[in-house]
């Protein structure tokens, strides 16, 4: 199979989306799965929120610019990307905090069951949050069972309370079968919480169709909401009337401005709100979501697969790249919008790439991770990235001392 | 006593600070205790973080611009305003979420005690958070005892685990005696959590000297960090090695980038971090704090008292204002940087004032609340505000229909 790269870019229906982002010309950014690029719409919106709304309209902006509804409004913009109908998604807090709310919500629904099944290789914060709940409530109410990926299905026994999984693995990009695992879990009466950090905005999702109970996800990766953007939380409508989450903040109150001393949860998805959210941060995310206008997740997925396939194809043509061992699934259907390779010098290779204007990231202990974001990446970018990588590996540029010193954030 | 207003403004050492804020010329903003005004430094910093750091330097900014240390760095800037030594203040999440962490931390330290004493008239979210913990853990581990203000001292018995109070009451502005109440609580083995939402940046504080255990506070009121700015959390150093908080997110891990599956809390104040924070929101607050450079909290307090005294003096000269009944303490030593008045038409009076470019806020059921922020308010502003208020009350302008319809946020 041979590729005509210029032709691929010419036929790319998503190519015009690149102009919606501010990205440095010289950089090939393969780390949108860690921090999404800056949408021009966010720049404009932040300026508006800061200067006009905060600076000029001050406190009246809560009504005048509808700050108060922003968590719901932004949630409704995310919902279609998740395959979620209205009134089920809200934006607030971080993934960690939202997971905590959902873990306790789910455990409370499952009286007599305490086990929370997850994957050893899950993103650590997810496991940490369960450990925190376990320490607080004791093993009789919460017990983390973390198993290897291949043992998940066997672990779904009828004494399990919750199955909590990250849909796309942060290291390998492997995708779990959401429909199958949710169904198997439900057959045993298990409630399912999906972490969509590496899925939302990257692959098509069908939360409603898969009958998912709860989910959380990230605003700053494929949704391009800015560094540390607020997270989102999905709760299926069928559960709204029977749940209570523990972080009873005033923003989740049915009537916050009555300042009643007794907590009465708001109806619906709003009951998951806690404290006052950062309006600047949320507005940046809200504006960023407009780049998804007029494209479907199927189109994004198709280009994402084509980009990773091209990368692998070009890599195979260079024997100097053989030492980079693919640890993502070879079948593009089974992986998200990333490719990960292990190499003993992974950290130094990442640093050398960054020094040559190709930006991947390193994941301990030995992984170079490339993210492919179809909204701002071209096929020519992929070809250039391979050329740079080839140069670094063939010339062993990564052995240079300056690429070995680890920074605080890797 | 008579006032020479021009003279007061001329002698005001804080007057030059007004130029550090972007405030609409025509507005007299008496609501900085709800949403602080926009510091020019924040405008510039946000632009830098968005365009240069996020847009251009992308993921490398976590190291290059030290995003990773921002929660600690901003905490250290707040510490002197609290009378707190280094390594005890961190910026993260919301007041509500931080209170949750501290409530459970404190309850866990107090085995055998479950009572959390607070004030009926506390800001509701504080009470709600205790209610959430009570529902989760049961009354044997957490039991909210909310009492009238005058009954607090009697409620401090040796079966109480935690005293949780807001230092300055959001409705009346009444100040609790932090030193005395902390001491009385400690005599009974009670841990004390102070909510400093209306105190930080408004009145001098001495957390270390008062031997306070824990505290939380707000970034968006007197600290001018922007709408929904992240909150701060104080934990006395003497407790750092014996505590554990339940929201075990990866940012609070000793080595977050080792991605270890087991949670090991970071040493010191960093253990209170949970998820990834919004860098834009936090940078806005960090920059806003620079307006406190080269002024002392004593200077701010002195001007604040002078402003509220002037307001009350001028009010007394207008019999048409007698129906506005002061519900803040008459002794300026006993109240924070606000004045509250009850009136049956409080909501409409607020709306009429706003319509005439004087911005207070309404607090249910019947309070007009004026905040006095010495960094951007002049004595002339106070005199003008009284003139406008007098006009509205004397002419009964507030009875106009258009001022009666309540907005979503009051």
Corresponding CATH architecture of the largest domain in chain A: 3-Layer(aba) Sandwich
- Choose one word for the global shape of chain A: globular
Strand content of chain A: 5-15%
Strand runs of chain A, count: 15
- Helix fraction of chain A? 25-40%
Report Rg of chain A. Answer: 22 Å
| Topology pattern of chain A, helix = H, strand = E | HEEEHHHEHEHEHEHEEEHHEEHEEEH
Most extensive contact: A-B, 96 and 96 residues
CATH H-level superfamily title of the largest domain in chain A: Type I PLP-dependent aspartate aminotransferase-like (Major domain)
Count of folded domains of chain A: 2
Spatial strand arrangement across the major sheet of chain A: 4-10-9-8-7-5-6
Helices of chain A, by number, come to: 12
CATH fold call of the largest domain in chain A: Aspartate Aminotransferase, domain 2
- CATH C-level class of the largest domain in chain A is Alpha Beta
| Sheet with most strands of chain A | 7 strands, mixed
Oligomer: homodimer
Alpha-carbon distance between the termini of chain A? Answer: 36 Å
Structural class of chain A: alpha/beta
Overall pLDDT confidence of chain A:
97
């Amino acid at each position: 199979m041979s590729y005509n790269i210029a032709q691929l870019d010419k036929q790319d229906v998503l190519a015009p989306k690149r102009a919606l982002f501010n990205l440095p010309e010289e950089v090939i950014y393969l780390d949108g799965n860690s921090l999404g690029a800056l949408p021009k719409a966010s720049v404009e919106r932040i300026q508006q929120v800061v200067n006009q709304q905060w600076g000029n309209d001050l406190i009246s902006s809560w009504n005048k610019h509808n700050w108060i509804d922003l968590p719901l409004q932004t949630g409704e913009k995310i919902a279609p990307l998740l395959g979620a109908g209205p009134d089920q998604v809200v934006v607030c807090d971080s993934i960690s905090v939202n997971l905590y709310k959902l873990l306790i919500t789910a455990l409370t629904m499952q009286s007599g069951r305490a086990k929370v099944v997850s994957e050893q290789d899950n993103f650590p914060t997810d496991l940490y949050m369960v450990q925190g709940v376990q320490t607080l409530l004791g093993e009789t109410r919460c017990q983390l069972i973390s198993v290897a990926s291949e043992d998940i299905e066997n672990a779904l026994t009828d004494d399990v309370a919750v199955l909590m999984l990250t849909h796309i693995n942060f290291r390998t990009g492997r995708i779990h079968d959401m429909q199958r695992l949710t169904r198997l879990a439900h057959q045993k009466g298990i409630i399912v919480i999906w972490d969509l950090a590496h899925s939302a905005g990257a692959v098509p999702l069908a939360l409603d169709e898969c009958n998912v109970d709860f989910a959380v996800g990230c605003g700053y990766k494929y949704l391009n909401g800015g560094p540390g953007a607020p997270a989102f939380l999905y709760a299926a409508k069928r559960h709204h009337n029977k749940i209570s989450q523990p972080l009873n903040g005033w923003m989740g109150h049915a009537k916050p401005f009555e300042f009643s001393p007794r907590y009465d949860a708001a109806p619906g998805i709003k009951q998951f709100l806690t404290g006052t959210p950062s309006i600047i941060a949320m507005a940046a995310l809200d504006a960023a979501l407009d780049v998804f206008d007029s494209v479907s997740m199927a189109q994004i997925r198709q280009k994402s697969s084509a980009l990773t396939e091209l990368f692998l194809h070009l890599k195979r043509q260079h024997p100097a790249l053989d030492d980079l061992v693919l640890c993502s699934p070879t079948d593009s259907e089974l992986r998200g919008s990333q490719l990960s390779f292990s190499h003993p010098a992974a950290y130094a290779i990442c640093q050398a790439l960054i020094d040559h204007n190709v930006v991947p990231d390193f994941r301990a202990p030995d992984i170079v991770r490339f993210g492919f974001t179809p909204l701002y990446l071209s096929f020519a970018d992929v070809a250039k990235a391979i050329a740079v990588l080839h140069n670094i590996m063939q010339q062993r540029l990564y052995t240079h001392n300056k690429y070995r010193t680890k920074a605080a954030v890797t």
